[in-house]
Amino acid sequence: MKVLVIGAAGKTGRLVVDRALAKGYSVKALIHDTDALAEAPLSDGVHIVQGDVHDARTVREALAGCDSVIDTLGGKKPFLRTEMEASAARVVLQAMQELGIRRLVVISVLGAGDSHHQAPFWYEHLLLPTFLRGGLPDKNAMEAEVQASGVDWVVVRPPMLTDDVPTGHVKVVQQHETAHSITRGDLAQFLVDQVDDNSHLGTAVVVANR
After folding, report:
1. What's the confidence (pLDDT) of residue 40?
2. pLDDT digits (tens, 9 = 90+) for 65-88
3. How many domains does the chain have?
């Protein structure tokens, strides 16, 4: 199994790379700025492709030979309005369809789609209208692109991310439940597990430790 990790230089993306390697997968990493790897390089054995995820030629090069994609893109300033993730999804999905690649696992956020009612009060009424106000419409647009694509997709909506030690346990939060937080390590493992797990195909799931 060969997996392309998009956004592999980010905090969560790096952990996804490590978890995928630990599972025995071959890993390619699409990275916009390799300067980010100077002080903290990725693990040995990762095939790095440098370039812009909005460039169709670069994306096709990165996808060549892959069986699945894990998209960990996320804006560093989610309070600013952007269309980065939705436009990137269009390019990636077009290339996947051209190359016959079926599986896409992508990070969204708690609050996207119909998940706002699964957020705790402080998240729904403080975080969503302030810190996440710019990025949330982009996440919604990205999800719409993915859901209309016809590929085998899983959208994962995490709540607040922490850098705590992974617990080894991820809860898929049901519609009547509330999600509070999840460690990046646990989120990364869940994302990698969706590459060969069909339990959540075609669904957007909220995940949490608690």
Report:
1. 81
2. 999 999 999 866 665 677 899 999
3. 1
Q: How far apart are the first and last CA of the chain?
A: 31
CA atoms of 210 and 74, how far apart (whole Å): 22
- pTM for the full model? 0.94
194 φ, ψ to 5°?
-75, -10
| Torsion of Cα atoms, 161 then 164 then 170 then 173, to 10° | -40
CATH code of 185's domain = 3.40.50.720
Per the CB < 8 A criterion, the answer to whether 66 and 28 are in contact is yes
Token code pair at residue 192: 């990698």
Distances (CA, A) of 51 to 56, 58, 59, 152: 10, 6, 8, 25
Q: Strand 203-208 vs strand 171-173: parallel, antiparallel, or unpaired?
A: antiparallel
Strand partners, 70: 5, 105
d(CA 36, CA 42): 10
pLDDT bucket at 122, cuts 50 / 70 / 90: confident
Domain range holding 11?
Answer: 2-208
